[in-house]
Protein backbone atom coordinates (compact mmCIF):
# COMPACT_ATOMS: atom_id res chain seq x y z
CA UNK A 1 0.00 0.00 0.00
CA UNK A 2 2.81 2.41 0.88
CA UNK A 3 4.63 1.77 -2.41
CA UNK A 4 1.38 2.42 -4.27
CA UNK A 5 0.87 5.70 -2.38
CA UNK A 6 4.41 6.79 -3.30
CA UNK A 7 3.44 6.51 -7.00
CA UNK A 8 0.60 9.02 -6.65
CA UNK A 9 1.15 12.36 -8.43
CA UNK A 10 -0.89 15.55 -8.45
CA UNK A 11 -0.56 17.15 -11.92
CA UNK A 12 -1.53 20.82 -12.08
CA UNK A 13 -1.74 22.80 -15.36
CA UNK A 14 -4.33 25.16 -16.78
CA UNK A 15 -3.84 23.70 -20.28
CA UNK A 16 -6.04 20.63 -20.84
CA UNK A 17 -3.77 19.29 -23.61
CA UNK A 18 -0.71 19.23 -21.35
CA UNK A 19 -2.67 17.55 -18.55
CA UNK A 20 -3.88 14.86 -20.95
CA UNK A 21 -0.52 14.15 -22.64
CA UNK A 22 1.49 14.20 -19.41
CA UNK A 23 -1.18 12.20 -17.61
CA UNK A 24 -0.97 9.40 -20.20
CA UNK A 25 2.86 9.39 -20.10
CA UNK A 26 2.95 9.29 -16.30
CA UNK A 27 0.30 6.56 -16.16
CA UNK A 28 2.35 4.49 -18.63
CA UNK A 29 5.31 4.90 -16.23
CA UNK A 30 3.28 3.40 -13.41
CA UNK A 31 2.08 6.54 -11.64
CA UNK A 32 -1.45 7.19 -10.40
CA UNK A 33 -2.23 10.68 -11.75
CA UNK A 34 -4.58 13.16 -10.09
CA UNK A 35 -5.22 16.13 -12.39
CA UNK A 36 -6.17 19.71 -11.50
CA UNK A 37 -6.64 22.69 -13.83
CA UNK A 38 -5.85 25.48 -11.33
CA UNK A 39 -4.27 26.17 -7.97
CA UNK A 40 -7.52 26.21 -5.97
CA UNK A 41 -8.61 22.80 -7.28
CA UNK A 42 -5.11 21.45 -6.77
CA UNK A 43 -5.01 22.60 -3.16
CA UNK A 44 -8.39 21.00 -2.42
CA UNK A 45 -7.30 17.66 -3.94
CA UNK A 46 -3.92 17.83 -2.22
CA UNK A 47 -5.52 18.27 1.20
CA UNK A 48 -7.94 15.41 0.56
CA UNK A 49 -5.61 12.87 -1.08
CA UNK A 50 -2.13 13.86 0.23
CA UNK A 51 -0.05 12.83 -2.82
CA UNK A 52 3.71 12.73 -2.06
CA UNK A 53 4.65 14.38 -5.40
CA UNK A 54 3.17 17.46 -7.08
CA UNK A 55 3.92 18.59 -10.65
CA UNK A 56 2.72 22.12 -11.28
CA UNK A 57 3.02 24.81 -13.90
CA UNK A 58 4.43 28.09 -12.59
CA UNK A 59 2.27 30.47 -14.64
CA UNK A 60 -1.45 29.94 -14.00
CA UNK A 61 -4.34 32.38 -13.55
CA UNK A 62 -5.47 33.36 -10.06
CA UNK A 63 -3.25 31.17 -7.84
CA UNK A 64 0.04 30.64 -9.67
CA UNK A 65 2.51 27.78 -9.13
CA UNK A 66 4.69 29.71 -6.66
CA UNK A 67 1.72 30.45 -4.42
CA UNK A 68 0.54 26.83 -4.65
CA UNK A 69 4.07 25.68 -3.73
CA UNK A 70 4.05 27.92 -0.65
CA UNK A 71 0.67 26.57 0.51
CA UNK A 72 1.76 22.95 0.02
CA UNK A 73 5.10 23.41 1.82
CA UNK A 74 3.40 25.21 4.71
CA UNK A 75 1.03 22.27 5.21
CA UNK A 76 3.35 19.41 4.23
CA UNK A 77 7.08 20.30 4.12
CA UNK A 78 8.07 16.80 2.99
CA UNK A 79 5.95 16.86 -0.20
CA UNK A 80 8.11 16.91 -3.32
CA UNK A 81 7.07 19.70 -5.72
CA UNK A 82 8.44 19.87 -9.28
CA UNK A 83 7.77 23.06 -11.26
CA UNK A 84 7.09 23.46 -14.99
CA UNK A 85 8.36 26.66 -16.53
CA UNK A 86 8.88 28.27 -19.91
CA UNK A 87 12.33 29.34 -21.08
CA UNK A 88 11.50 32.97 -20.35
CA UNK A 89 10.52 32.27 -16.74
CA UNK A 90 13.88 31.22 -15.29
CA UNK A 91 13.70 33.89 -12.58
CA UNK A 92 10.46 32.37 -11.36
CA UNK A 93 11.98 28.87 -11.52
CA UNK A 94 14.93 29.97 -9.38
CA UNK A 95 12.52 31.67 -7.00
CA UNK A 96 10.63 28.38 -6.63
CA UNK A 97 13.82 26.64 -5.48
CA UNK A 98 14.15 29.25 -2.74
CA UNK A 99 10.71 28.13 -1.56
CA UNK A 100 12.01 24.54 -1.39
CA UNK A 101 10.79 23.16 -4.71
CA UNK A 102 12.46 19.85 -5.52
CA UNK A 103 13.35 20.76 -9.09
CA UNK A 104 12.04 22.56 -12.20
CA UNK A 105 11.57 21.32 -15.78
CA UNK A 106 11.39 23.66 -18.78
CA UNK A 107 8.71 23.48 -21.45
CA UNK A 108 8.37 21.81 -23.87
CA UNK A 109 8.77 18.98 -21.39
CA UNK A 110 11.43 16.39 -22.23
CA UNK A 111 10.42 12.92 -20.99
CA UNK A 112 13.96 12.02 -19.93
CA UNK A 113 14.43 15.27 -17.97
CA UNK A 114 11.10 14.76 -16.23
CA UNK A 115 12.03 11.15 -15.44
CA UNK A 116 15.27 12.33 -13.78
CA UNK A 117 13.38 14.90 -11.70
CA UNK A 118 10.82 12.28 -10.61
CA UNK A 119 13.58 9.81 -9.77
CA UNK A 120 15.26 12.42 -7.58
CA UNK A 121 11.95 13.13 -5.82
CA UNK A 122 11.41 9.40 -5.24
CA UNK A 123 14.90 9.02 -3.79
CA UNK A 124 14.27 11.88 -1.35
CA UNK A 125 11.00 10.28 -0.24
CA UNK A 126 12.73 6.90 0.27
CA UNK A 127 15.62 8.48 2.20
CA UNK A 128 13.23 10.29 4.52
CA UNK A 129 11.34 7.06 5.19
CA UNK A 130 14.58 5.21 5.92
CA UNK A 131 15.64 8.00 8.25
CA UNK A 132 12.33 7.83 10.13
CA UNK A 133 12.65 4.06 10.48
CA UNK A 134 16.26 4.45 11.59
CA UNK A 135 15.19 7.07 14.14
CA UNK A 136 12.45 4.83 15.51
CA UNK A 137 14.82 1.84 15.74
CA UNK A 138 17.47 4.01 17.37
CA UNK A 139 15.01 5.34 19.92
CA UNK A 140 13.90 1.79 20.72
CA UNK A 141 17.55 0.78 21.11
CA UNK A 142 18.24 3.71 23.43
CA UNK A 143 15.13 2.88 25.47
CA UNK A 144 16.22 -0.75 25.72
CA UNK A 145 19.77 0.18 26.73
CA UNK A 146 18.40 2.67 29.24
CA UNK A 147 16.31 -0.05 30.88
CA UNK A 148 19.29 -2.41 30.94
CA UNK A 149 21.61 0.19 32.42
CA UNK A 150 19.08 1.19 35.07
CA UNK A 151 18.68 -2.47 36.02
CA UNK A 152 22.48 -2.82 36.18
CA UNK A 153 22.60 0.12 38.59
CA UNK A 154 19.98 -1.49 40.81
CA UNK A 155 21.94 -4.76 40.79
CA UNK A 156 25.07 -2.84 41.81
CA UNK A 157 23.13 -1.27 44.73
CA UNK A 158 23.96 2.26 43.64
CA UNK A 159 20.46 3.32 44.74
CA UNK A 160 19.94 7.04 44.39
CA UNK A 161 22.17 7.26 41.30
CA UNK A 162 19.54 5.53 39.16
CA UNK A 163 17.67 8.79 38.58
CA UNK A 164 20.92 10.51 37.65
CA UNK A 165 21.80 7.71 35.25
CA UNK A 166 18.40 8.07 33.60
CA UNK A 167 19.09 11.77 33.17
CA UNK A 168 22.44 10.98 31.53
CA UNK A 169 20.81 8.54 29.13
CA UNK A 170 18.08 11.06 28.36
CA UNK A 171 20.75 13.62 27.45
CA UNK A 172 22.37 11.12 25.08
CA UNK A 173 18.99 10.32 23.54
CA UNK A 174 18.27 14.03 23.03
CA UNK A 175 21.70 14.47 21.45
CA UNK A 176 20.94 11.56 19.11
CA UNK A 177 17.66 13.19 18.13
CA UNK A 178 19.55 16.39 17.39
CA UNK A 179 22.02 14.58 15.17
CA UNK A 180 19.18 12.81 13.36
CA UNK A 181 17.54 16.21 12.79
CA UNK A 182 20.75 17.47 11.16
CA UNK A 183 20.84 14.35 8.98
CA UNK A 184 17.25 14.99 7.98
CA UNK A 185 18.02 18.57 7.00
CA UNK A 186 20.93 17.30 4.92
CA UNK A 187 18.59 14.99 3.03
CA UNK A 188 15.91 17.65 2.71
CA UNK A 189 18.32 20.29 1.43
CA UNK A 190 20.49 17.81 -0.46
CA UNK A 191 23.52 19.25 1.38
CA UNK A 192 26.50 16.92 1.82
CA UNK A 193 27.96 19.13 4.56
CA UNK A 194 24.82 18.73 6.68
CA UNK A 195 24.81 14.96 6.04
CA UNK A 196 28.45 14.60 7.12
CA UNK A 197 27.92 16.79 10.18
CA UNK A 198 24.86 14.79 11.23
CA UNK A 199 26.64 11.48 10.69
CA UNK A 200 29.61 12.63 12.82
CA UNK A 201 27.18 13.60 15.58
CA UNK A 202 25.54 10.14 15.42
CA UNK A 203 28.97 8.47 15.67
CA UNK A 204 29.95 10.64 18.64
CA UNK A 205 26.76 9.83 20.53
CA UNK A 206 26.99 6.10 19.81
CA UNK A 207 30.53 6.33 21.25
CA UNK A 208 29.05 8.01 24.36
CA UNK A 209 26.60 5.10 24.80
CA UNK A 210 29.50 2.63 24.52
CA UNK A 211 31.60 4.58 27.03
CA UNK A 212 28.71 4.79 29.47
CA UNK A 213 28.20 1.01 29.24
CA UNK A 214 31.92 0.34 29.81
CA UNK A 215 32.06 2.77 32.75
CA UNK A 216 29.08 1.03 34.34
CA UNK A 217 30.79 -2.35 33.93
CA UNK A 218 33.96 -1.01 35.53
CA UNK A 219 31.96 0.61 38.31
CA UNK A 220 30.24 -2.67 39.15
CA UNK A 221 33.48 -4.65 38.83
CA UNK A 222 35.13 -2.78 41.69
CA UNK A 223 32.25 -3.10 44.16
CA UNK A 224 34.40 -5.71 45.96
CA UNK A 225 38.18 -5.33 45.92
CA UNK A 226 40.91 -7.97 46.10
CA UNK A 227 43.50 -6.75 48.64
CA UNK A 228 47.06 -8.03 48.52
CA UNK A 229 50.27 -6.67 49.98
CA UNK A 230 52.41 -5.19 47.23
CA UNK A 231 54.64 -2.34 46.15
CA UNK A 232 52.78 0.88 45.19
CA UNK A 233 54.91 1.45 42.08
CA UNK A 234 53.68 -1.13 39.49
CA UNK A 235 50.13 0.30 39.04
CA UNK A 236 51.60 3.75 38.26
CA UNK A 237 54.29 2.29 35.99
CA UNK A 238 51.68 0.39 33.97
CA UNK A 239 49.54 3.53 33.55
CA UNK A 240 52.59 5.44 32.29
CA UNK A 241 53.12 2.75 29.65
CA UNK A 242 49.49 2.52 28.63
CA UNK A 243 48.91 6.28 28.38
CA UNK A 244 52.17 7.21 26.64
CA UNK A 245 50.69 7.01 23.13
CA UNK A 246 47.60 9.08 23.98
CA UNK A 247 49.74 11.76 25.64
CA UNK A 248 52.08 11.93 22.65
CA UNK A 249 49.16 12.18 20.22
CA UNK A 250 47.77 15.10 22.26
CA UNK A 251 51.15 16.86 22.34
CA UNK A 252 51.42 16.39 26.11
CA UNK A 253 54.56 15.31 27.98
CA UNK A 254 53.76 12.45 30.38
CA UNK A 255 56.38 12.68 33.12
CA UNK A 256 57.00 9.97 35.78
CA UNK A 257 57.91 11.01 39.33
CA UNK A 258 57.97 7.67 41.15
CA UNK A 259 59.61 7.08 44.51
CA UNK A 260 61.29 3.63 44.38
CA UNK A 261 61.82 3.53 48.16
CA UNK A 262 58.18 3.18 49.23
CA UNK A 263 57.15 0.35 51.55
CA UNK A 264 54.61 -2.27 50.43
CA UNK A 265 51.00 -1.76 51.51
CA UNK A 266 47.76 -3.77 51.34
CA UNK A 267 45.95 -2.65 48.21
CA UNK A 268 43.96 -3.74 45.18
CA UNK A 269 46.55 -3.06 42.48
CA UNK A 270 44.06 -3.38 39.60
CA UNK A 271 41.63 -0.97 41.26
CA UNK A 272 44.36 1.61 41.88
CA UNK A 273 45.61 1.21 38.31
CA UNK A 274 42.07 1.94 37.06
CA UNK A 275 41.91 5.06 39.28
CA UNK A 276 45.24 6.39 37.98
CA UNK A 277 44.28 5.59 34.39
CA UNK A 278 41.13 7.66 34.76
CA UNK A 279 42.96 10.60 36.37
CA UNK A 280 45.77 10.65 33.79
CA UNK A 281 43.28 10.49 30.92
CA UNK A 282 41.35 13.43 32.42
CA UNK A 283 44.59 15.38 32.87
CA UNK A 284 45.60 14.84 29.23
CA UNK A 285 42.15 15.97 28.11
CA UNK A 286 42.44 19.07 30.33
CA UNK A 287 45.72 19.99 28.62
CA UNK A 288 44.30 19.32 25.17
CA UNK A 289 41.27 21.46 26.01
CA UNK A 290 43.55 24.42 26.85
CA UNK A 291 45.24 24.74 23.47
CA UNK A 292 45.21 28.53 23.55
CA UNK A 293 47.52 28.70 26.58
CA UNK A 294 51.23 29.35 26.13
CA UNK A 295 53.98 26.88 27.00
CA UNK A 296 54.39 23.11 26.67
CA UNK A 297 51.70 20.90 28.19
CA UNK A 298 52.71 18.40 30.83
CA UNK A 299 51.08 15.72 32.99
CA UNK A 300 53.03 14.34 35.96
CA UNK A 301 52.23 11.00 37.59
CA UNK A 302 54.05 10.40 40.85
CA UNK A 303 54.22 8.47 44.11
CA UNK A 304 55.54 9.61 47.48
CA UNK A 305 55.46 8.61 51.12
CA UNK A 306 52.45 9.87 53.08
CA UNK A 307 52.80 11.41 56.53
CA UNK A 308 51.26 8.33 58.20
CA UNK A 309 53.66 5.96 56.45
CA UNK A 310 51.25 5.07 53.64
CA UNK A 311 51.48 6.21 50.03
CA UNK A 312 50.29 9.19 48.02
CA UNK A 313 49.61 8.95 44.30
CA UNK A 314 49.33 12.28 42.53
CA UNK A 315 48.42 13.33 38.99
CA UNK A 316 49.27 16.95 38.15
CA UNK A 317 48.69 18.87 34.91
CA UNK A 318 49.19 22.44 33.72
CA UNK A 319 45.96 22.45 31.69
CA UNK A 320 42.71 24.40 31.88
CA UNK A 321 42.12 24.08 35.62
CA UNK A 322 38.79 24.32 37.46
CA UNK A 323 36.99 26.90 39.55
CA UNK A 324 35.85 26.24 43.13
CA UNK A 325 32.29 25.26 42.21
CA UNK A 326 33.49 22.55 39.81
CA UNK A 327 35.99 21.19 42.37
CA UNK A 328 33.23 20.80 44.94
CA UNK A 329 31.14 18.66 42.55
CA UNK A 330 34.02 16.71 41.05
CA UNK A 331 33.34 13.33 42.71
CA UNK A 332 29.54 13.62 42.73
CA UNK A 333 27.46 11.10 40.83
CA UNK A 334 27.32 11.57 37.05
CA UNK A 335 28.99 14.98 37.12
CA UNK A 336 31.61 15.32 34.38
CA UNK A 337 34.10 18.08 33.56
CA UNK A 338 34.01 16.86 29.94
CA UNK A 339 30.53 18.20 29.28
CA UNK A 340 28.56 16.01 26.87
CA UNK A 341 31.61 13.81 26.18
CA UNK A 342 31.89 12.44 29.73
CA UNK A 343 29.69 10.02 31.69
CA UNK A 344 30.59 11.20 35.21
CA UNK A 345 31.16 7.59 36.35
CA UNK A 346 34.97 7.60 36.20
CA UNK A 347 35.55 9.88 39.18
CA UNK A 348 32.72 8.19 41.11
CA UNK A 349 34.66 4.95 40.68
CA UNK A 350 37.92 6.62 41.81
CA UNK A 351 36.29 7.88 45.02
CA UNK A 352 34.65 4.51 45.66
CA UNK A 353 37.88 2.53 45.26
CA UNK A 354 39.91 4.94 47.42
CA UNK A 355 37.17 4.91 50.09
CA UNK A 356 37.31 1.10 50.17
CA UNK A 357 41.05 1.40 50.84
CA UNK A 358 40.27 3.63 53.82
CA UNK A 359 41.96 6.49 51.97
CA UNK A 360 41.07 9.97 50.74
CA UNK A 361 41.02 12.11 47.58
CA UNK A 362 42.16 15.72 47.41
CA UNK A 363 41.88 18.19 44.51
CA UNK A 364 43.80 21.43 44.10
CA UNK A 365 43.15 23.51 40.99
CA UNK A 366 43.34 27.03 39.60
CA UNK A 367 41.84 28.21 36.33
CA UNK A 368 44.39 28.35 33.48
CA UNK A 369 47.10 27.04 35.81
CA UNK A 370 46.29 23.38 36.20
CA UNK A 371 45.03 20.69 38.54
CA UNK A 372 46.57 18.22 40.99
CA UNK A 373 44.59 15.23 42.27
CA UNK A 374 46.11 13.33 45.20
CA UNK A 375 45.02 9.85 46.34
CA UNK A 376 46.16 8.95 49.86
CA UNK A 377 46.23 5.29 50.91
CA UNK A 378 47.07 4.46 54.54
CA UNK A 379 49.86 2.06 55.45
CA UNK A 380 47.29 -0.42 56.75
CA UNK A 381 44.57 -0.12 54.09
CA UNK A 382 41.26 -1.42 55.36
CA UNK A 383 40.04 -4.26 53.13
CA UNK A 384 36.46 -3.65 54.18
CA UNK A 385 36.62 0.13 53.82
CA UNK A 386 33.57 2.35 53.63
CA UNK A 387 30.75 0.88 51.55
Walk me through the structure.
By secondary structure, the chain is α/β, with parallel strands linked by helices. β11 and β12 form a beta hairpin. Helices cover 54% and strands 18% of the residues. The longest helix has 45 residues, at 111-155. Residues 382-387 have low confidence and may be disordered. It contains 12 helices and 12 strands.
What key attributes describe this structure?
disordered C terminus; alpha/beta; 3 domains; Heat Shock Protein 90; elongated; 387 residues; Rossmann fold; five-stranded mixed sheet; 12 helices; five-stranded parallel sheet
Per-chain topology:
Blueprint: H1 2-6, E1 8-12, H2 16-28, E2 32-36, H3 39-49, E3 53-57, H4 65-75, E4 80-85, H5 90-98, E5 103-106, H6 111-155, H7 161-189, H8 192-221, E6 228-230, H9 233-249, E7 252-257, E8 265-267, H10 269-288, E9 297-305, E10 311-317, H11 324-329, H12 345-356, E11 360-366, E12 370-377
Parallel strand pairs: 1-2, 1-3, 3-4, 4-5, 7-9
Antiparallel strand pairs: 6-8, 9-10, 10-12, 11-12
Helix pairs in contact: 3-4, 6-7, 7-8, 8-12, 9-10, 10-12
Short description, anyone?
With 387 residues, the protein is α/β, with parallel strands linked by helices. Helix content is 54%, strand content 18%.
Low-confidence stretches: 382-387
What order do the helices and strands follow? HEHEHEHEHEHHHEHEEHEEHHEE
Span between N and C termini?
A: 60 Å
- Lateral strand order in the biggest sheet: 2-1-3-4-5
Number of strands: 12
Count of domains: 3
Based on CA atoms alone, the radius of gyration comes out at 32 Å
Amino acid sequence: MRAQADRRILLVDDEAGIRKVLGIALADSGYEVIAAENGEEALEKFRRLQPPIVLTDIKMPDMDGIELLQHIKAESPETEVIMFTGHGDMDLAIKSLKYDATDFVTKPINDEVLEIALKRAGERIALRRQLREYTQNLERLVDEKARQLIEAERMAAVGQTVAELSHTIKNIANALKGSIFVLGKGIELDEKEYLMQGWRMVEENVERIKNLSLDLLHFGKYSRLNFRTGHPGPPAEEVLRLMAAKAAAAGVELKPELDPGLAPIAMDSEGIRRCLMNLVENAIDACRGDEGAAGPKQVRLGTRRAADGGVEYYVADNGAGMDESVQQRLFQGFFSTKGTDGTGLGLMMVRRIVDQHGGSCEVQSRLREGTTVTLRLPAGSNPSGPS
